[in-house]
Amino acid sequence: MSKVTQISSASQLDGIKSGNTIVVIDFFATWCGPCKAIAPVFATVAEKLSETGKMAFVKVDTDKNSDIARAHNISAMPTFVVFKNNQETHRIVGADMPKLKAVVEELLAASGGNIIASSSSSSTWTGAEIPRGYKVVNSEIDVKGLDCMNWKDDFGSIRKLVDTAGPVNTLAGRSGKDKGKGKESGAEPDWMESDTDEQLMLFIPFSAVVKVFQVQITSLPPAPGEDDEDDEETPRRPRTIKLFTNNAHILGFEEAESKDAVQTVELKEEDWRDGTAVINTRFVKFQAVSTLTVFIVDAEGGGECVRVDRVRIIGETGEKRDAGKLEKVGEEQ
């Protein structure tokens, strides 16, 4: 039996909102190609996470329920609207399932629940503590605009870096024997490593203006073994990091080295706790951020390869972009 409830009236929807802590609404149309493409994924997430009284997943056909669509100011499809305690908390326009998952995970984490289950994710990874009054704003990242320079593109994923689910191989690949590449464990690595040298340039655009309070970076390289302690190919954790804001595109390495950073941080051994280092921003300079560039200048111990497993942005969400007129979002598949 499907865990997704088809809504037929405003009163039915109101009852579900009142009877559940978190409600995720999929506003769709039968003629919308992206809506059809994402429907099976939405159903799978609902199957895993639906729990009576706590979390409900519903679908609203905007053609059959135009009154409900108008009441929720739906202007494009698909649109996912998330309610917590009967108050709207998030709105995702377009068939962007990674972003929707990130939103759900944030809400579950904030309420003490478990993140979305995954056979490849660590169930024990939580990253660093989130300061009171702030939240993970990775759900506001425009994943289609993510960019990175000097990463080994034959493994790892830019999108995985900002995934709020735990790293795959949190423990696997930490011995010096396999260099942390997950080869011998048989698992596909989901982190990123630098390629020709130790530098990485990560460009993070947001779909809304955000205030950045912290940048949390998780790096889980293998512990050096006795026979490879000085192996330059063994990935290391980042050491010096420069942060830039509101650039229209990714910076080149020479440009970033000569340009004044909004903030520069040198991480030390004691900054890493359970594999995660916290960069507290000079908050007054990170009040209206539309893009964030993270430049990893070098690796600890003078290593020639740097590894990054996850990047979490902690802060507040500001003004959303105007969704525009009613339309399909994304390409038909």
From TrEMBL:
<dbReference type="InterPro" id="IPR037047">
    <property type="entry name" value="PITH_dom_sf"/>
</dbReference>
<feature type="region of interest" description="Disordered">
    <location>
        <begin position="169"/>
        <end position="191"/>
    </location>
</feature>
<dbReference type="Pfam" id="PF06201">
    <property type="entry name" value="PITH"/>
</dbReference>
<dbReference type="InterPro" id="IPR008979">
    <property type="entry name" value="Galactose-bd-like_sf"/>
</dbReference>
<dbReference type="InterPro" id="IPR013766">
    <property type="entry name" value="Thioredoxin_domain"/>
</dbReference>
<dbReference type="InterPro" id="IPR010400">
    <property type="entry name" value="PITH_dom"/>
</dbReference>
<comment type="similarity">
    <text>Belongs to the thioredoxin family.</text>
</comment>
<dbReference type="InterPro" id="IPR017937">
    <property type="entry name" value="Thioredoxin_CS"/>
</dbReference>
<feature type="compositionally biased region" description="Basic and acidic residues">
    <location>
        <begin position="175"/>
        <end position="186"/>
    </location>
</feature>
<keyword id="KW-1015">Disulfide bond</keyword>
<dbReference type="InterPro" id="IPR036249">
    <property type="entry name" value="Thioredoxin-like_sf"/>
</dbReference>
<protein>
    <recommendedName>
        <fullName>Thioredoxin</fullName>
    </recommendedName>
</protein>
<feature type="domain" description="Thioredoxin">
    <location>
        <begin position="1"/>
        <end position="109"/>
    </location>
</feature>
<dbReference type="GO" id="GO:0005737">
    <property type="term" value="C:cytoplasm"/>
</dbReference>
<feature type="domain" description="PITH">
    <location>
        <begin position="126"/>
        <end position="333"/>
    </location>
</feature>
<dbReference type="Pfam" id="PF00085">
    <property type="entry name" value="Thioredoxin"/>
</dbReference>
